[in-house]
Amino acid sequence: MNVFQKAIYKLVPRSIKQSIIKESATKSDFSKWMGRVFFGLENGTLETNENIFSIVSRLANVLSSLPFKMYKNYDQVNDEFTDRLVYFPNQNQSLDDIFKVLEVSRNTNGNGYALIFRDIRMQFEKLVPFNPNYVEPILNTDSGDLWYRVNNGGKSFYFHNSDIIHVKHIAGNGNWKGISPIGVLKNSNEFDKSVREFSLKEMQTARDSFILTYDTNVDDDKRKAIVADFRRFYQENGGVLFQESGVTIEQLKRNFIAGDMKISEDITRDRIANVYNVPNIMLNSGGNSFSSNEQVMQMFVDTNLASTVKQYERECNKKILTKEQRISGLYFKFNLNGLLRGDTTARVALYHGGLRDGWLTRDEVRIKEDYAPRGGPADMLWVSGDMYPLDMDPALRKTTKRNERDVSE
């Protein structure tokens, strides 16, 4: 970055950002690049395909509900900075709302963007998500820096990558934009839509049919009268129809077969699960291969959530924290333990082993189960023998009668 670019980066972005925010706030016009998450193809598919809506909403809800905290050398940090970031990243949203918006954008458009505002000391001030359809990553061939072009009201604004939180799906070599999952599913969605429309049309147009049989001795006038009477009955969709001798009326059975729709639905769900890298049981399909909910969540975390969480953590650590803060030991981290807790039996076994082997305290277990810590001995590490403080002199442990005599002497 040359001297001119540095000057532009330091002086211009803040005024541009503030003017855009002011314009959007005064006009209350969120039809531009701010505030709108759903747009175009992604919008239509998300609003009309219940399977895609289901998986996108589940992924967004799971990630936004995870505890997101700042740590310093494994110790949780609670200060004014973290309070503002979590509860007031901007005047309208909390951080979990922003993460939900970013995750919905990422899982529809393939990219989620949020603009970082900084104060005069270049410290974090606010975070605002915006519509990914108005953003285009651009690489500066002179400096090699990545910039983002944001279109707003017919004008283009440029922001350096250090001011943009960008979370995305995988991108091809040389591309900075993530691939849209809905774009990948385009053919599958069209096929599923065609099957549904055909089946609906068949159900709507399928009318009752009859076989009208009469003997050969029925003359032409009587035959015309029988047909006219039956036509009237059919058009009126009911009424009284007198069946005379020599005339037989038999209804043709036309049963709607839903088997083809079920097969098509299962195929579509499997394809959606494959594209979003989630167990198909999350789309209410299959799931017989899992013996417990713990196995399902472990697979979900391994194949999907771990990489997504790491991407959010890296972006926040790199762009919200300063270099000095990172060097001092500060970092952001999602807590995935809640998803991997398993059932009651699995948790009891885990806590029992941790307590008896001396790597968990009773207070840590109580905190994990949302109970208040007790302090004192409950905050100490114990070891089985049976259960003494880990730092206790072994000679003082009354494990045998000999030890008891030694202690008494």
Automatic annotation (TrEMBL):
Organism listed in the record? Listeria newyorkensis
Q: Which domain of life is it from?
A: Bacteria
Q: Could you tell me which InterPro entries the record lists for this protein?
A: Phage/GTA_portal, Portal_HK97
Provide the protein name: Phage portal protein
